[in-house]
């Protein structure tokens, strides 16, 4: 068995300078993942849970409350876009899943739980992105230039 060659960090096997793929690139201070609470509206007859238990992060009790909370959440995110340089957001549960009822549609996809016209109107008033993009890491630049 031949001895393993140990190379200096940040160099390739040929000794040339190369990015270290194990090095963590520091995050830009304005780029922070945020999780927004999801809103649950029960729709009996259109839900499924193997054990009969259901969960929502925040429960509302009517379609009107649901619409108000969703449009309020969109306004809150828009404020973060203008004041805290938030560049994007994703609502992760478009439909209910087993045991949870946080979706915009029910588990069986037969009932729309929010007024999409109100959501569309709230989202269309979103301000344009004004922040500068985070710097590109040197590693990404070297990969792109190959």
What would you note in describing this structure?
With 146 residues, the chain is mainly alpha-helical. It has a domain of 86 residues. It is 25% helix and 4% strand. A two-stranded parallel sheet has the order 1-2. The longest helix has 21 residues. The C terminus is likely disordered. This is Beta-galactosidase. It comes from Streptomyces zaomyceticus.
Strand-helix topology:
Blueprint: E1 39-41, E2 58-60, H1 63-83, H2 116-124, H3 138-144
Parallel strand pairs: 1-2
Helix pairs in contact: 1-2
Protein name: Beta-galactosidase
Region (Disordered): 1-32, 118-146
Biased composition (Polar residues): 9-19
The profile of the biggest β sheet is: 2 strands, parallel
Total strands: 2
Shape: globular
Question: End-to-end span in angstroms?
Answer: 35 Å
Q: Per DSSP, what share of the residues sits in E-state strands of 2 or more residues?
A: under 5%
Q: List the secondary-structure elements in sequence, H or E.
A: EEHHH
Write down the overall mean pLDDT. Answer: 75
| Count of helix runs | 3
Organism: Streptomyces zaomyceticus
Protein name: Beta-galactosidase
Biased composition (Polar residues): 9-19
Region (Disordered): 1-32, 118-146
